[in-house]
Amino acid sequence: MRNLIISAALVAASLFGVTAQAAEAPAAPYVELANPVPVAEPGKIEVVELFWYGCPHCYAFEPVINPWVEKLPSDVNFVRIPAMFGGPWDAHGQMFLTLEAMGVEHKVHAAVFEAIQKQHKKLTDKNEMADFLATQGVDKDKFLATFDSFAIKGQIVKARELAKKYEITGVPTMIVNGKYRFDIGSAGGAEQALQLADQLVAKERAATKAAAN
């Protein structure tokens, strides 16, 4: 009888341990969006980075994410989207979209980050932006004309709508294929965020192949 009681106690303790471990299981490092967002280039797996030039964490992420982007396979499309939460966020976002529309963003992206983060330039006034960008080889008059164009206003609306659909609350935030959202904190660090992005890209690639068979 005593042995039966001891055995029952051990089983109970074992079950309690399993339950406790299950309760303490870490949450997934990403959020799966309830309503997936269509990607910019159908047929490719999209990785989005939402950022702000005024964000020190985004600036620190640059030397980590840029080499990763350069090595992405041809079936992956990387997209940067400026987060626009008002004030300087909007000004910097409009500057980014203007430079992107002009086809020069990739040439001056690092310089703009450096100016804001290290040189402490505000770059919130379009004329201040134009003067600085002129030192980087960007045509001042063309920048100002593009900055206030109808096309850029449309891009601003699109960027805000996407941020709302992604349900972001801060930056830098990454979105894989319009389905999975995570940030550096939830991933456990900058390198871990990119490893997670790789895993989710692989997951989407496998799902696409399975659906085709």
Automatic annotation (TrEMBL):
Gene3D superfamilies attached to this UniProt entry: Glutaredoxin
Signal sequence residues: 1-22
Keyword Cytoplasm: no
CDD domains: DsbA_DsbA
Record PROSITE patterns: THIOREDOXIN_1 (PS00194), THIOREDOXIN_2 (PS51352)
Highest taxon of the lineage: Bacteria
Keywords on record: Disulfide bond, Periplasm, Redox-active center, Signal
Pfam families attached to this UniProt entry: DSBA (PF01323)
Compartments, as annotated in UniProt: Periplasm
All residue ranges annotated as the Thioredoxin domain in the record: 14-152
PANTHER family according to UniProt: THIOL:DISULFIDE INTERCHANGE PROTEIN DSBA (PTHR35891:SF2)
Membership in a protein family: Belongs to the thioredoxin family. DsbA subfamily.
Annotated protein name in UniProt: Thiol:disulfide interchange protein
The encoding gene: dsbA
